[in-house]
Amino acid sequence: MKPRFVMAIDQGTTSTRSILFDHGGQLVAVAQLEHHQYFPKPGWLEHDAEEIWRNVDKVVNRVLGDVGATATDIAAVGIANQRETIVIWERKTGKPVRRAIVWQDTRTDAMVEEMLRAPGAEQIPQLSGLPLSSYFSAPKLRWMLDETPGLRERAQRGEVLFGTMESWLIWNLTGGPDGGAHVTDVTNASRTMLMNIRTLEWDSHLLDFFGIPEAILPEIRGSLETYGTGRGPLQGVPIAAALGDQQAALFGQTCFSAGEAKCTYGTGSFLLLNTGTELVASTHGLLTTVAYQIAGEPAHYALEGSIAITGSLVQWFRDGLGLIGSAAEIETLARTVDDNGGCYIVPAFYGLFAPHWRPEARGVIAGLTSYITKGHLARAVLESTGWQTREVLDAMNADSSLRLKALKVDGGMTSDNLLMQFVADVLDVPVVRPMVAETVSLGAGYAAGLAVGYWSDLEGLRRNWHLAAEWLPEMDEERRESEFRNWTYAVQLTLDWTSKVGNATTRVKSR
Amino acid sequence: MPGSIQSIERAAAILRLLAAAPGPLRLTEISSSVQLSRGTAHGILRTLNDVGFVDQDRVTGKYLLGAGLAALGGGLVDPNELRARSMNWADPLAARTGEAVRVVVPEGGDARVVHYVFRPDHSAQKADVGAVLPGHATALGKVLLAFHPVAVQDVLTFYTARTLITRSALTAELTRIRRQGWAVERGEHQMDMAGIAAPLTGLGGLVVGAIGIHGAVDRLLDPAGVPRPRLLALVQECARAVGRELTTLRTQV
Ligand SMILES: Nc1ncnc2c1ncn2[C@@H]1O[C@H](COP(=O)(O)OP(=O)(O)OP(=O)(O)O)[C@@H](O)[C@H]1O
């Protein structure tokens, strides 16, 4: 009997899901479980890796049960995971040595500040494709090795293993202490800050700089490649793909070729542009990252611009200001007026990120007059997401000669028609939303299915991509550019705020 | 200035009476309290019951304030909220049926489109979000009319030979829709187009909108004009899923 489905395991920041897709790329069944968020200190965020593995096991069983499927019905398993989060576990027992440090965790901020002044720091962006920041795995790994008694020695003796989430899951899925494969996929490895973005191997300069013993690291493998086969309910099923979640969304949106881009609009937003097999080093504040690699073929690269505050500004408007009862009502409120009334909101809550990278900036509401109503504010909130996208796209255009034909979008904010129209207007490209909203899981499923031949080629998958909605640019050029100038002035107002008023940073952080 | 409308004054008096009463009231208690004939009071109560301001206990036949009153302050539903709540269900409906999907809210006796999902066949299409569909001539509109006793226009506009243009034909159709829980459109708006729609039911059983598919008559209906069972089942299943979504707390979005 031919396998009916591919399975995606989407290991996210708040929950873990298992999803079955059929040959048409349609979602057949889904099971989901949340895991605990541990906040041991302000700014710290940890996960229990064992709990996450147990949840994977449960959602896999549950989703198979839902459709009465067994291992023989599953062609392959693909993993998409929260990126940069780190786990260290014992090779013999499979027990994590302590809780996983999550990507959002800021405990290494001060350490990274010092590292920035250390010799060799200036080479890091060029080697890794990333700016030196506490966001990525290497400083977290360094911290864990330093702060866990005896761990560095155990690492050197090869008793413990390091991995990002997909490594942890692949190792467990393929047998754990009983022969589990200790591997990482290249897209996840590209977020550790330890991999050379050109050779796609662990880089000795980076390992030295961060003081990481090589013995602890997994083997870097392609994103579409069979790492091993499953046990238990997935007995014999190839574990055939792994991708970081944003790369998975890029894949799920079928952005397989140079010049194709997607933006995921959620709490924060992530714009990724496939630059093909050519590596584009950003000089405009973007990250260079691996998009995907089919085993044995050259890697595809991407430029990535992350926007910290988009949906969370809407949440602030709802919870902080109480001007709306639910996120979607912001569109209703915004439609009570025809324009922003000259008002701009720059949500630099924790500084400005891509492409500015100005941590000392703080947000502003610019252009306030007595004319401004809550409707204008609602518009300014939505428009800020559009302008931030524009800034990132401008940076991409400056870094690369690829020109976007359309922006593929997904995420919770895409239900906002006013916002999506505005994005199309200010980018001056069509914005298109696919029919399957679960692009992260779909990407993992596609990758796994391709790796084992469940789907034969990328073009076949493109035919599965169906347009659910489309927004075409309507704003006239003059208005677009004058509004963008105003936004840019507003951004200028945010800069240096904390260097002028002092300790506002600590006020924000201690909230 | 038009004079005050007597039946509204009477309805208001009955609502105040019910609000002040310690428990549900019998028809005779109500009619004698507000000094109306039983027939008049019954007519008003029935209308109030239709619009959801008054409920009637099925066992005792007594009257009490309806759940629709409580929801009044917030309007029926925020149209953008309805889109956000239905998006994740409307997409699979389009994917599985292979047809375009619309979500509508009532506007007078008509239906305003708040969400549109393209038909998944790679053809060029245009979403008509914001458009108003005629209540009596579309599946979506008829669902809303059936579950929202609003005043239907005096003149029922003629679109095709199939449009229901007599009040009696429409009334019979709406009764059927209420009974079966879904509506079908057989070329009544555009000759070659059909539709299948079901109500979106929010808190307190109030129908706040409708969801449906539309497309070529021969794809949606069998030669006898009956909706293809698989498509109808998918529409109904989707409407129920959105309904469940609508009755969970707002703050969870
Ligand atoms: N109609 C809307 N208009 C504007 N913003 C919205 C709308 N609907 C949701 N949002 C915002 O989108 C965000 C939720 O999107 P999404 O569900 O994709 O969130 P996420 O937490 O980033 O993703 P996930 O939980 O899947 O990892 C919230 O911040 C919310 O404020």
TrEMBL record, chain A:
Its EC number is 2.7.1.30. It catalyses: glycerol + ATP = sn-glycerol 3-phosphate + ADP + H(+). Keywords: ATP-binding, Glycerol metabolism, Kinase, Nucleotide-binding, Transferase. The keyword Repressor does not apply. Glycerol binds at residues 83-84, 135, 245-246. Pathway: Polyol metabolism; glycerol degradation via glycerol kinase pathway; sn-glycerol 3-phosphate from glycerol: step 1/1. It comes from the Bacteria. Pfam families: FGGY_C, FGGY_N. Sn-glycerol 3-phosphate binds at residues 13, 83-84, 135, 245. Residues 261-451 form the Carbohydrate kinase FGGY C-terminal domain. GO terms for molecular function: kinase activity. It is an enzyme of class 2 (transferase). InterPro entries: ATPase_NBD (IPR043129), Carb_kinase_FGGY (IPR000577), Carb_kinase_FGGY_CS (IPR018483), FGGY_C (IPR018485), FGGY_N (IPR018484), Glycerol_kin (IPR005999). Residues 6-252 form the Carbohydrate kinase FGGY N-terminal domain. ATP binds at residues 13-15, 267, 311, 315, 412. Inhibited by fructose 1,6-bisphosphate (FBP). ADP binds at residues 13, 17, 267, 311, 412. Belongs to the FGGY kinase family. Key enzyme in the regulation of glycerol uptake and metabolism. Catalyzes the phosphorylation of glycerol to yield sn-glycerol 3-phosphate. NCBIfam families: glycerol_kin, PRK00047.1. This is Glycerol kinase. It comes from Kineosporia mesophila.
TrEMBL record, chain B:
InterPro entries: GAF-like_dom_sf, HTH_MetabolicPath_Reg, Tscrpt_reg_IclR_C, Tscrpt_reg_IclR_N, WH-like_DNA-bd_sf, WH_DNA-bd_sf. SMART domains: HTH_ICLR. Residues 5-67 form the HTH iclR-type domain. It holds the Pfam family IclR_C. Keywords: DNA-binding, Transcription, Transcription regulation. Residues 68-248 form the IclR-ED domain. The keyword DNA-binding applies. This is IclR family transcriptional regulator.
